[in-house]
Write a structure and sequence with these properties.
Blueprint (H helix, E strand, L loop, with lengths): L24 H12 L7 H53 L16 H6 L1 E2 L7 E2 L17 E3 L17 E3 L16
Antiparallel strand pairs: 1-2, 3-4
Length: 186
C-alpha cells in the first residue's frame, strides 16, 4: 500500500511509509528522539564503579597470592631438608654396616655434601661406587645449592660448621615462616 506524504516541501517523496521525506515532521521528530535516547556506551560513573570493584578484588587477591608463594617455598624447603637428612642417615647406615670405609673422627657421617654426590666406593671385591644423591638440592630460600651444616662435634644449635663431618643441615636463608619460627631452626 503506497501512501504519499502530504507534507512535501520541495522535491518528491519515495512514497513508502517507512521512509519519510526529508522535510516531513515525522523525520524531524525521529531525529529529536534519537538525540535524547542514551547512547550505546558506558558513563563515567559506571567506569569508576567498575574500576573500584576491580581494585578491591585485586587488593584482596594479592596478599593471598603472596602467601601461597611463601607456602610453596616452605613446602619445598621441608622436602629438601628431609631428603638431605635421609641421605645423611643412609650414608651413616652404610657406614655402620661396614659397607663403606669409615674414618674414626667422622662417627660414620659423610665428610661433606659433595661426597654424597660424588659417591663412595663400596667395600668388597666389586669396588663399585655408590652415589647417595644425584645433585645437591637448591635451597628455595636462598636460590643456591648451599646449605648450613653441623657436625657431630658441634653444639646442636650452632650456626658454624666445625668441618669434621656432616651430621645435620639447615637453610642459610633468613626470615620467619608462616608459623612464626625461623627457617634456620627447621
Amino acid at each position: 500500500m503506497m501512501v504519499r506524504s502530504q507534507f512535501v516541501s520541495g522535491g518528491s517523496c519515495s512514497g513508502e511509509r517507512s521512509l519519510p521525506c526529508k522535510g516531513s515532521p515525522s523525520a524531524f521528530r525521529r531525529s529529536q528522539i534519537a538525540a535524547t535516547e542514551p547512547s550505546a556506551g558506558f558513563t563515567l560513573l559506571e567506569l569508576i564503579a567498575a574500576m573500584t570493584i576491580l581494585l578491591l578484588l585485586t587488593a584482596v587477591a594479592m596478599p593471598m597470592a603472596r602467601m601461597q608463594v611463601q607456602r610453596t617455598r616452605e613446602e619445598e624447603l621441608r622436602r629438601d631438608l628431609r631428603d638431605l637428612r635421609q641421605t645423611i642417615d643412609r650414608y651413616k647406615d652404610f657406614s655402620d654396616r661396614g659397607m663403606i670405609p669409615m674414618k674414626f673422627e667422622s662417627y660414620g657421617y659423610p665428610p661433606d655434601l659433595d661426597t654424597l654426590v660424588k659417591g663412595v666406593e663400596l667395600k668388597g671385591p666389586s669396588n663399585k661406587k655408590y652415589k647417595f644423591l644425584r645433585r645437591i638440592p637448591v635451597d628455595p630460600m636462598t636460590g643456591k645449592a648451599e646449605w648450613g651444616m653441623r657436625s657431630m662435634q658441634d653444639d646442636p644449635d650452632s650456626k658454624s660448621w666445625g668441618g669434621e663431618n656432616v651430621f645435620d643441615v639447615y637453610t642459610l636463608g633468613t626470615g620467619k615462616a608462616l608459623d612464626g619460627t625461623d627457617y634456620s631452626d627447621w
